[in-house]
């Protein structure tokens, strides 16, 4: 019996494969928000981590709904197609295109949060995100991708995946917002010199970088949004005709960005700065994002290397000359790198791509100028308005306490030492002990990593009640030199924990021995233990006094 070939409607196949591809890369781009959250959280101080994570969560939550209700319609209006909101579509699958646009919009929005970290009020940031998703970003895409209004000499402004439209715009918006807000407290001295304020976790920053790099393949390669197309009834490749070039240039530029930033940092300081390498990797990706489909193989080396190399230089200029406190370096990573890559388009293109270098460059300059000008004006107006009514920045007291507590009422790192060791209970002494007469306070300053062992030892001798405080200080432990983005700073105050244990029925000498045994590493900086007599004590609940209160 002869086999009957399976009849497939080619239009159904084309639509199904293309929809599946767009959804897959959309989910990949969405996952970049996990990278942004980790990268930005790692670059802020521990007292501001929850605030930064909350801003990342709300950027997506608020922004994507506003883009659905308003932003997509504004984009169409600017493009010349009239105001048609995303909820007013002819058929459900049209929402795939809306979602694909939304993840790009939210990437631009979340970039801003890193620049204003540590001092912006949450309500101001959320308000700006609302307006960015509703108007600011849609105007940019309406002029470019949706409307193709930026034309010089018949040449349309070129931006394949958002090197300028998304990242350049986000970096410029972040720089503008940071300028309006002003620097964090203690960032600059009265004479204008800079104080380095390191972030709390290099690990988070680097892992966030790698997550972003993974998602970036969805950003660039995913913009080749059609796998198949129909020509005269024949099945042919759609935008995938150049997908290999996009994947190659994205990868090469990424690697060269990391190397370029690391090299310049090494030439400046004699050391290869880890954070600059991570940020340079991202700058290389930003640089190529506008032009990965047209760039020659050697051009990917040029774009990525220059985007990475400019990073330490531009960050230094922003920090030391402009005196703008861009906490997560969003302008040199996204802003200037995006501008650079976009302007390099006609100079690094593969043979036969560009007919007129002059016209192509002029179109790129006009596009960059229009997007930058609109972004600066709109962002400056919004943040300026918030500042004018006193709603842009938290109070100095809240800033010093940290935004985690003042804005959210949480402590991201509430525990010290090993969590399974309880501080409010422990073993009862079987021997009854021989207490010293009177009441004694034993105060110990020890390394934070020894706290868990100290708590265990104190519980073992029947002295589980204690008070623990995070402190910093110096003694015999020598000062060290640290680096943050290539800048050195002296670490002469070392992080310690202060343990206070008041005893009456347990000999103070046993408490001292228990603490010393647990805290001793044999190295300078193990700490000190002090024993102080306590004149009296009073228990709040019962009113008991003397040793009975303890």
Shape: elongated
Q: What's the overall average pLDDT, rounded?
A: 91
Q: How many beta-strand elements?
A: 10
Low-confidence stretches are 416-435
Largest sheet: 4 strands, antiparallel
Rg (C-alpha, Å): 29 Å
Largest beta sheet: what is the strand line-up? Answer: 6-9-5-10
Query: What is the first-to-last residue Cα distance?
Result: 96 Å
Brief summary:
This protein is α+β, with helices and mostly antiparallel strands and 550 residues long.
Give me some keywords for this one.
single chain, 550 residues, 4-stranded antiparallel beta sheet, elongated
List the helices and strands and how they pair.
Blueprint lengths: L9 H21 L1 H12 L5 H31 L14 H22 L6 H22 L7 E2 L2 E2 L6 H19 L20 H19 L7 E4 L2 E4 L5 H27 L4 H16 L7 H24 L9 H14 L1 H4 L8 H32 L7 H6 L1 H6 L30 E8 L4 H10 L6 E7 L6 E5 L2 E5 L2 E10 L4 H12 L7 E8 L16
Antiparallel strand pairs: 1-2, 3-4, 5-9, 5-10, 6-9, 7-8
Helix pairs in contact: 1-4, 1-7, 2-3, 2-4, 2-7, 3-4, 3-5, 4-5, 4-6, 5-13, 6-9, 6-11, 6-13, 7-8, 7-9, 8-9, 8-10, 9-10, 9-11, 10-11, 16-17
């Amino acid at each position: 019996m002869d086999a009957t070939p399976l009849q497939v409607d080619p239009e159904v196949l084309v639509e199904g494969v293309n929809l599946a591809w767009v959804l897959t890369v959309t989910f990949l781009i969405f996952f970049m928000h996990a990278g942004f959250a980790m990268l930005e959280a790692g670059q802020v101080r521990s007292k501001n981590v929850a605030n930064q994570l909350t801003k990342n969560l709300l950027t997506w939550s608020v922004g994507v709904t506003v883009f659905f209700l308003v932003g997509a319609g504004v984009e169409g209006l600017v493009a010349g197609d009239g105001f048609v909101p995303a909820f007013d579509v002819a058929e459900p699958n049209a929402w795939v295109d809306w979602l694909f646009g939304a993840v790009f919009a939210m990437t631009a929005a979340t970039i801003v949060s890193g620049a204003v970290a540590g001092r912006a009020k949450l309500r101001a940031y959320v308000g700006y995100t609302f307006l960015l998703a509703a108007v600011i970003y849609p105007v940019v895409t309406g002029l470019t991708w949706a409307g193709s209004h930026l034309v010089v000499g018949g040449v349309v402004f070129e931006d394949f995946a958002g090197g300028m439209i998304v990242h350049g715009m986000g970096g410029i918006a972040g720089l503008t917002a940071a300028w309006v807000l002003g620097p964090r407290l203690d960032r600059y001295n009265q004479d204008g010199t800079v104080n380095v304020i390191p972030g709390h976790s290099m690990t988070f920053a680097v892992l966030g970088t790698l997550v972003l790099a993974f998602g970036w393949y969805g950003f660039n390669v995913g913009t080749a949004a059609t796998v198949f197309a129909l020509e005269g009834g024949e099945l042919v490749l759609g935008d995938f005709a150049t997908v290999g070039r996009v994947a190659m240039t994205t990868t090469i530029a990424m690697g060269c960005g990391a190397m370029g930033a690391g090299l310049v940092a090494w030439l400046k300081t004699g050391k290869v700065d880890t954070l600059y390498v991570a940020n340079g990797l991202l700058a290389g990706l930003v640089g190529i994002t506008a032009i990965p489909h047209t760039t020659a193989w050697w051009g990917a080396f040029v774009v990525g290397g220059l985007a990475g190399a400019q990073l330490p230089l531009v960050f230094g200029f922003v920090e030391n000359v402009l005196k703008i406190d861009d906490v997560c370096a969003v302008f040199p990573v996204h802003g200037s790198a995006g501008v650079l890559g976009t302007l390099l388009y006609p100079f690094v293109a593969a043979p036969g791509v560009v007919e007129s270098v002059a016209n192509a460059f002029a179109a790129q300059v006009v596009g960059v100028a229009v997007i930058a000008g609109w972004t600066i004006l709109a962002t400056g107006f919004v943040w300026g308005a918030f500042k004018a009514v006193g709603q842009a920045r938290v109070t100095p007291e809240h800033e010093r306490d940290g935004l985690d507590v003042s804005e959210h009422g949480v402590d991201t790192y509430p525990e010290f030492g090993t969590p399974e060791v309880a501080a409010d209970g422990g073993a009862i002494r079987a021997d009854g002990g021989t207490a010293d007469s009177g009441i004694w306070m034993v105060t110990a300053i020890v390394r934070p990593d020894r706290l868990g062992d100290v708590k265990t030892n104190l519980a073992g001798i029947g002295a589980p009640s204690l008070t623990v405080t995070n402190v910093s200080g110096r003694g015999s432990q020598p000062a060290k030199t640290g680096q943050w983005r290539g800048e050195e700073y002296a670490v002469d105050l070392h992080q310690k924990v202060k343990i206070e244990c008041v005893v009456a029925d347990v000999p103070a000498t046993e408490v001292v021995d228990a603490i010393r045994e647990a805290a001793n590493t044999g190295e300078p900086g193990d700490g000190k233990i002090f024993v102080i007599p306590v004149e009296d004590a009073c228990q709040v609940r019962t009113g008991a006094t003397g040793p009975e209160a303890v």
